[in-house]
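Action item from last week, closing it out:
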Amino acid sequence: MLALHPSATPVARTAKHWLLVCAAAVFMMALIGAVTRLTESGLSIVEWKPITGALPPLSEAAWQAEYHLYQQSPQGEIINRGMSMEDFKYIYFWEWLHRLWGRLIGVIYALPLIILWRRLPVETKPALLGLLALGGAQACMGWFMVKSGLVDQPMVSHYRLAAHLSLAALIYALLLRQALIFQGPPVTAMASADSRRLRRFSLTTLAMVAITIVWGAFVAGLDAGMLYNTFPTMDGHWLPPELDDHRPLWHGFVAEPAIVQFTHRVLAVLTLVKVLALWRLSRRLLVAEQVRRIATYAALAVGAQVLLGIATLMTQVQIGLATLHQGGAFILLGVLTWLIYHLSPRQERTA
């Protein structure tokens, strides 16, 4: 039998482009989600209507009904009491767009999957169905997050926010990897010891990036970026003074805003060092030139991401910079996913 990679089938090009469009849509969702959070719009819609909620209020009476529900929520009562209808429509728009974009992603993923299903390689189907399930789980996680801000406190749980963002990042990375499978085989071979070594290093680097993203979500959920807007020190302190006051200390690293910001700073610096070390290692080992080129992209991405993070901090979380910073995290994640794929053993199937 002739050994073929899934990319050798005619349907592969269509599947690759479809999955790349889905990944791009998830990337845009991350940017829209960032703006939604930064404008404090995420709690403006207090009900979850998966079908009918796709339409915004279409009459003045419908707007008044939505506004009345919002006024009864913790954010409407405590933070935005007396908010004008125009201001309410502004924050409503961003949350509505965020939810609508999520529905759009579901459609552009599920419909082509149904159309292509019979022609897809059998071995790719479990992963594609798994991605569909993750998309459904993400929708549920989004509402689970919002509900935490509709009970008694006018803010969502930063733990649930981190879970929501982490699941989005996972879906994004898996979509990219699946698209790469349809694009063609990895450039490396199983016999290369240097490739295996660089792959192990890349995997630990990816784990470091993932942890840093989680703490970035903690920073966002706790509004910790509004504190200590200087760099490299925190208003002249190398360590936050809150370290001496918070007990138990371990809890401060996930729950006390200043300590969470400090932890994110440290993780960001460690991530920078790790990615630059990865780039340096790629230059020393005998690996494919394409692998070295992707490692260079990772080094450039992490450098830009750190600069964006510093700028976001020093501008007290300016919305445009903060949104780009979240997008930068996804770009770095995508580049590392690309690199790790090309450091994987060749994946072939029998036709």
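Closing note: The first strand starts at residue 3 and ends at 4.
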